[in-house]
Amino acid sequence: MSLTRTPAPAPRPRTPLDDAPVLLDPAAVADLRGRVHGPVYVAGDEGLAAEVAAWNLAVTHTPAVAVGATCAADVAAAVSFATAQGLPVAVQATGHGPVRNADGALVVTTRRMQGVGVDPVRRTARVEAGVKWQKVVAAAAEHGLIGLCGSSSDVGVVGYTLGGGMGSLGRRHGFAADAVVSVEMVTADGVLRTVRADTEPELFWAVRGGKGNFGVVTALEFELFPVPALVAGGLFFAGRDAAAVLHAYRTWAPTLPEEVGTSIAVLRLPPLEELPPPLRGQTVVHLRYVYAGEDPALGAALVAPMESAGEVLLGGVGPVPPTALDAVHMDPTDPMPAWEKGMLLADLPAEAVDAFLAAAGPDVQVPLVMAEIRQMGGALARPARVPDAVPGRDAAWSVFVIGPMVPELAEVVPAVGRGVLAALAPWAAPGGMVNFLGDVSGPDEVLAAWSPEAAERLLAVKRAVDPGDVFSTGYALRARRG
């Protein structure tokens, strides 16, 4: 193993689960404020809540300290302060992921770090930690290039990518993490490192798929790809035709070439005036389709068999620029409280579709906003050119459920969502996608996303670079077991 071992920081007097108040050294806080270009808040300060507010309103952070980082030096100063004060460290860009409250921790917010640079000759982009995909997509499109973004360009690049990153172009080009060239990150010793395959191969392997377990990533450099003929869109089918549409989908999708990415979802739409009348207040089935190949006529023809699978209420498929791909999934952009969780499937036989419909279909009264089946395979099933820790490559499909985490449904939604996944357990594939883990019980459930061999390798890296579990929030692994 090639790793630079990080000296263990001073033993931490508390963990995120401790109830005792955090007592900070006022002189140390004043020194931190003098060294950081962005704002520094401590518990009780006006502005702290706004600084750490997450997109997912179900999560309310109550940290001991929040640092609004503007650059890598700010991050390094924050991590050094945290280890000296015995605080765990959490990081947040947009807060889309449903993580637990970083209570008593130091939270580094990176949304002010907005640098984006595109090298059209090398076909790469360097992106700082707070950047959302929409900024990268627009910058790359000016040069006829595209990055491996997900279903929503409103999501932060770094968290999405380091959790794997499975988007509509994944079956052609692989996971977003597979395209990463280098990672700039601050580890538990407060040192800023540039991590590449030729400098720190084990850490480079681990952080691409292992997410925030090894430090605070301040910037990524990753490959961009020439923009092919994008033919994309979606079809909304009447809910009463759900069975016919989903059964047609399970036989049609496996016939598609790798240039096509698809998913299908049962959506329960609210009665909002901004929704088109055919969809307003309805439960519908939404087919999502992206062709990223060289023949637009073929891209349009491939979707034709699904157009007659049921009554189409709205939608269509046609040529689109990269900047319009959000229209395929139409993910919400306004903050909302949400519970979510996913799983992987090895197969999708007729019995699995029936089980999915019985648990989440339009005929069932469940408080879920969406239950989705997404096609995998293609480049997603192949090892990365430079191996990484992204799990789930053996799966054929992923399933994802999301519901409103409002107070009156706080117990019901998780129970119903887990029930949907349990109904599909007979067809489950091993492991899980880190970005789709959702609500987890603790480090052991996170670790189960990987094979036993990959899990032990990740833990070895964790012990080498974060032996004191400074990074112990969110989807955290623990260097110290037990």
TrEMBL record:
Residues 59-227 form the FAD-binding PCMH-type domain. Transmembrane segments: none annotated. PROSITE patterns: FAD_PCMH, OX2_COVAL_FAD. This is FAD/FMN-containing dehydrogenase. Keywords: FAD, Flavoprotein, Oxidoreductase. Its cofactor is FAD. Belongs to the oxygen-dependent FAD-linked oxidoreductase family. Residues 1-20 are annotated as: Disordered. Pfam families: FAD_binding_4. InterPro entries: FAD-bd_PCMH, FAD-bd_PCMH-like_sf, FAD-bd_PCMH_sub1, FAD-bd_PCMH_sub2, FAD-linked_Oxidoreductase, Oxid_FAD_bind_N, Oxy_OxRdtase_FAD_BS. One of its GO terms (molecular function) is oxidoreductase activity.
